[in-house]
Amino acid sequence: MPRLQSLEDLEARRAACVGARDPAKPCLALCAGSGCTASGAPEVLEALRESLKRAGLEETVELKSTGCHGFCEKGPVMLTWPEGTFYNQVAARDAKEIVASVSNGRRPVERLLYRDPTSGERVQREEDVPFYRFQQRVLFGNNGRIDPKNIDDYLGVGGYAALGKALTGSTPEQVVDWVKRAGLRGRGGAGFPTGKKWEVMRAQPATPKYLICNADEGDPGAFMDRSLLEGNPHSVIEGMIIGAFALGAREGYIYVRAEYPLAVEHFRVALAQAEECGLLGESILGSGLDFRIRLVQGAGAFVCGEETALIASIEGHVGEPLPRPPFPAQKGLWGKPTVINNVKTWASVPVIVNRGPEWYAAIGTTGSKGTMVFSLVGKINNTGLVEVPMGITLREMIYKIGGGIPNGRALKAVQIGGPSGGCIPASLIDLPIDYEALTEAGSMMGSGGMVVMDETNCMVDVARYFMEFLEEESCGKCFPCRKGTQRMREILTRISQGQGAEDDLKLLEDLGWMVRETSLCGLGQTAPNPVLTTLRYFRDEYLAHVRERRCPAKVCKQLITYSIEPTLCDGCHACVHVCTTEAILGEKKAAHTIDAAKCIKCGACLEVCQPKAVLVT
Amino acid sequence: MPKLTINGIEVEVERGTTVLEAARFLGLPIPTLCHDDGLTPYGACRLCLVEVTNGPRSKLQAACTLPADDGLVVQTHSARVERARQLLLELYVATTPQSKTIQDLASRYGVTRVRLTPEFEDCIQCGKCVRICREQMMAGAIGFAYRGNRRKVMAPFRPQSDICRQCGACMYICPVCELRCHGAEAETTLCSGCLNFAPACLDYHDHAMCFLDPCVACELAGPLRQDLVWPAVKPPESPK
């Protein structure tokens, strides 16, 4: 692969990539992201390859394994180009039929199309599926089109055009100004204006300067950064090169958690390809800009997502945060000015350069511009990765894109922003999703985790779960975070076991306030959010636990008992078979009883009981 | 030279000074547990928090690590600071009620109740020992191991370090184990004995100086002193 020496070389290469690709040539793009891989994508890929070979279509039909398409609930999913037909829940046995449909005048395989749950009709094209229709996929749009391990695919969809534009047609100051005018804010959670950060760093006289891409995504149930690195790593690299040009950096780092092997692999391949093409290295595209990116793997600490702890970790120290100021933009990696941005922030840079800051700033609200990526999980019909314009309401998010709550249950709360985000109650469902509105409501944007909860979730238990996570992940450096999270978890556990007192609620509020106000880094400063918001919005549930020793959602095991209603029980023995502790007694065809002393309240009997005779009180 | 305002007083300090140093220069008392003038600021005990106002917003920041910068507006004893400090000390007492330093701070800053069960931990992880070993003794024999609640100070991989010279600097600088408090009450976990009722007064100890100013016990307790003296620190019979 020849090195690209100039912008002309890049454009020639792109033209060759586009020219080599016949737009009418059929292409099967199967999602091989982590979600679909888990639900069987590798077998499907193999089966498709086999079927193409058998049909003799290897040359005429292209087969691609792409990054995450977002609709993980229906995985494995795939797209067929050029029609844009969307197939969901594809299995290996469907491969023959799919291949046949390509040769057979491209009539879609009806039964693999998405079925709209409300109308019951099949939807053929991806953009007509409600899950996708209300999204605006600026960063993730190309995931279904390109093979992340092939730079030519990225060039073919207009990749590295922004880099060319920045390097040849503008000055570094202009690029910073574009980012500033676009109103881009840090996508890692705190929402600091990216342009402002860049300006602070540019003003520093010290050299060398460093760039860091923060890909230490540790929130439970969040996979936005992972999917972007797995599906479109070159967009992140391009953003970082443009950043290097704007900020005068010669070296960049990407810090990926080691738990993301596929992301690491794809990013390594992308780095090697970019270096081979001369898009990284010395004098990029003949502009005189030298820039390299090194990949560093994290060692499994949630706190290393905090910028100063991340820098300490790259330097080889224990991943513990340092006080700010000085901010990394003033004194960061190896004591030098460092700009550290999230994966999605870097990936947004090429979009801004390509389409212009005005185009980008037109998306979103007054204070929050552009799109935000959320991983929508929990009690929701359409689990997956969604990219929406800022300012969209929770209602649209949950009911239009997410398809509502399963089993006809009622929405109770949405927890936004990862483990230290707050729980927003169903009554605030028309809240717009932007930085300020979420902070106002006691939650935060965070890096984009969104956990939907229904009436079967106990809010005390939810708060306890997240506090347990944060206690475990606190680095332990500063006292309030180390001991405060432990004490709050202890109190929450006590309440969920029915041993709480009403005074405990005040104590929780005091401790939560103190930990938020006094902790050293963002982890501690946000750790009490789940407790404080649940206390604020779901106080009655706490009171039921401490006053009546009752768990309204019937989750807290110490406060519930299982029994069998003798008039409903048909004596089928199904529960007796699943009970691991032999707590269910009774003859066949006669009403059973549960021995409360032996019952561990696992709920297995509840699940198997057909006549619904098992009662939880 | 940066010019900043602390409690309404304008002060000009040399570049590189911290807010804690500037405040102490003005004679404003700010409590610390992890700070020592000879060691790198660490910012872990969070007791030196001050309220820093920046336009319409204000936040609590550790004074020991905050560089004194032009135009900073600092409050060292605002209601918010006091509340945070009291709650922090409540948690400190509950963690290490046997430390005299912590009990003294608690009574000085008006902690009147401890709502948490005492734990009697021996280490508050202020990191003074780790820093003095590395920075002053040039040894680096001890460090932190593990994370979060399990984090502790230890020598690498084994109990005894090869490079430890047993100089004792770590024990000397420890704010928790240097002085033991035996007066913590079972119900409240609080002591308040020494500071409020039994100061080391000149008439008890021939060679000692009284550092308490004003000495609450001497001034107020007067004839009641004998009744109020905490048994554990009961002084010898004072000469008539």
Describe, in short, the structure shown:
The complex is a heterodimer of chains A (617) and B (240). Chain A is of the alpha/beta class.
The amount of helix of chain A comes to 25-40%
* Largest binding interface between chains: A-B, 32 and 34 residues
Structural class of chain A: alpha/beta
Kindly state the number of beta strands of chain A.
19
Mean pLDDT of chain A: 92
Count of alpha/pi helices of chain B: 8
| Coarse shape of chain A | globular
Biggest sheet character of chain A: 5 strands, mixed
Report the sheet-strand fraction of chain A. Answer: 5-15%
Q: How does this model look, in words?
A:
The complex is a heterodimer of chains A (617) and B (240). Chain A has 617 residues and is α/β, with parallel strands linked by helices. Chain A has 5 domains: 10-125, Glutaredoxin (3-Layer(aba) Sandwich); 151-361, Rossmann fold, CATH 3.40.50.11540; 371-454, Ubiquitin-like (UB roll); 459-547, Up-down Bundle (de novo design (two linked rop proteins)); 561-616, Alpha-Beta Plaits. Chain A is 40% helix and 14% strand. Chain A has 25 helices and 19 strands. In chain A, helix 3 (41-55) crosses helix 4 (95-103), helix 7 crosses helix 14 (343-355) and helix 8 runs antiparallel to helix 9 (194-202). By secondary structure, chain B is α+β, with helices and mostly antiparallel strands. Among the domains of chain B are: 3-77, Ubiquitin-like (UB roll), CATH 3.10.20.740; 128-173, no CATH class; 197-240, no CATH class. In chain B, the strands form 2 sheets. Chain B has a 5-stranded mixed beta sheet with strand order 2-1-5-3-4, sandwiched between helices. Chain B has a two-stranded antiparallel ribbon with strand order 6-7. Chain A binds chain B through residues 301, 318, 322-323, 325-326, 471-480, 482-487, 503, 507, 510-511, 513-514, 517-520, and chain B through 41, 43-46, 49, 60-62, 65-67, 69, 80, 83-84, 87-88, 91-92, 94-95, 115-116, 124-125, 127, 144, 146-151.
